[in-house]
Amino acid sequence: MAPKLPDLGRRDVVRGLGVGALLAVVAPSALRAAVHAPVLGRPRGGGHFLTADELDTLRAVTARLVPGPPDDPDPGAIEAGGAEAIDMLLAAFSFDPPLVHAGGPFSNRAGARHDDMATFVPLDALAELGWRIRLEGSQGRPERSFAGEVIGLQQLYRDGLARLTGFAAAPPDVQDAMLLAGDVVDFASLVLADTLDLMYGAPEYGGNRGLVGWTPNDWPGDAQPRGYSASEVSEVDPPSPSSTPLDPATARDALTGYVIGIMLVEPPGSR
Fold it and tell me: How far is CA 1 from CA 66, 143, 175, 221, 248, in A?
């Protein structure tokens, strides 16, 4: 694993590359809708889908993939609530309406009186079918198998976490080896993609708790219904403090110093 680069932290990378470009570089999947975890209670002893042991393991995995203090000065996956948000996504159809698409048009972060995004919207029949295939898999059902058999996210997470028994108690070097094992690396890359999606997405989707994914990086977030001034629309944005434009290759090399997950997306020697 590449050594830590002390002069270029995650905050500098996100500022210099941009959140959208960061996700394009690091997360191979498209952005996934997640869930609004903070307003919903978690069952005692575990998550809404994952067991207590599975959720503990997932927290440890996300913490190793996107660390926070003391390993990194900025908040990481634990502070953002990444594991809990993933668990809520896996259990989306345990709620009515399903916790898939936040409503709108506005949150209450820019002048609106009410956070419309906190209320999830019902799915139509086709959207429900698509999301059930994505989450639950095709399960051999004809109506779900029209494009072939699909293993859903629920099974991918359950199987992946089962391969990581003892992970939470292992030292960092052992955790790294476990994540890079041949039968785990694809799962670890999936977790990394989902964790980043949630950490830098809207907080209504459960991961960016307290805006910990936005605030340290000077990311303004949503601006409606307040909108933008004429100068903000017509002029180039001023650079953020301490920001330096970065190309994707430089950003990836910098991130490998403190986000082990980058190694999982593209192992050494593959470029």
Answer: 15, 45, 13, 33, 19
> Tens of pLDDT along 58-103?
999 999 998 898 888 889 999 999 999 999 999 999 999 999 999 9
Per-residue model confidence (pLDDT) at position 28: 38
On whether the CB atoms of residues 77 and 56 are closer than 8 A, the answer is no
pLDDT-derived band of residue 17, with 50, 70 and 90 as boundaries? low
At 208-248, the pLDDT tens digits run: 999 999 888 778 888 889 998 898 889 887 766 656 666 77
Q: For residue 113, which amino acid is it?
A: R
Structure tokens at 145: 């198998």
Residue with structure tokens 């089962």?
Answer: 162
Conformational region of residue 98, where left means phi above 0, alpha means psi within -120 to 50, and beta covers everything else: beta
Contact assessment for residue 98 and residue 123, using Cβ atoms and an 8 Å cutoff? yes
Where does the pLDDT of residue 39 fall: very low under 50, low under 70, confident under 90, or very high at 90 and above? very low
Within 10 angstroms of residue 25's Cβ, the number of other Cβ atoms is: 22
Eight-class DSSP state of 3: P
The span from the CA of 201 to the CA of 203, in Å, is: 6
Nearby residues of 270 by Cβ (< 8 Å), 6 or more positions away = none
CB 136 within 8 A of CB 154: yes
From the DSSP assignment, how many helices (H) and strands (E) are in the chain?
Answer: 12, 0
Q: How sure is the predictor about 36, in pLDDT bands with cuts at 50, 70 and 90?
A: very low
Question: What whole-number distance in Å separates Cα of residue 102 and Cα of residue 95?
Answer: 13
What b/e string do you get for 212-251 counting C-beta neighbours within 10 Å, with b at 16 or more? bbbebbebeebeeeeeeeeeeeeeeeeeeeebeebeeeeb
